[in-house]
Amino acid sequence: xxxxxxxxxxWLSVFVALSVIGAAIKIPAGIVTSVALDSxxxxxxxxxxxxxxxxxxxxxxxxxxxxxxxxxxxxxxLVVAIEMAILSYIFALFYRNGHRWIAxxxxxxxxxxxxxxxxxxxxxxxxxxxxxxxxxxxxxxxVAIALILIPRLAKITQPVKTxxxxxx
Length: 168
Prior knowledge:
By secondary structure, the protein is an all-alpha fold.
């Protein structure tokens, strides 16, 4: 059982590393420098390893992306990291139950419109309206990449998933 847990931690590390790489690929957002391709590894982890793993990668991925961007929103990035963790977990719930398109649409809408809502009240309407278009484009790119890669990576992670299910 220790070996299987180690394998899952290894995959988790790979997805966090992919988040760091994705965080370096920025999507022009004007006032915010943390919109990047850091979410697709969280979606991969969500679909392949489950909701908790996806949440870890989603939250960590955002923090690393924000750090590479200079933390323009300071401690508010912790709020965004929690939102990304929640969105990744929700993606896993739907995706792993066969509702791939619903999972994808919920992630895009949640990340683009719902997640920045607290900032509507904190930083104002102009900030929210400036942020939404880039988040929408970024979310679509992240989901598209994830949907392309998940079936290909499922073949690699399948033995790990099957072994872990047999140990329960």
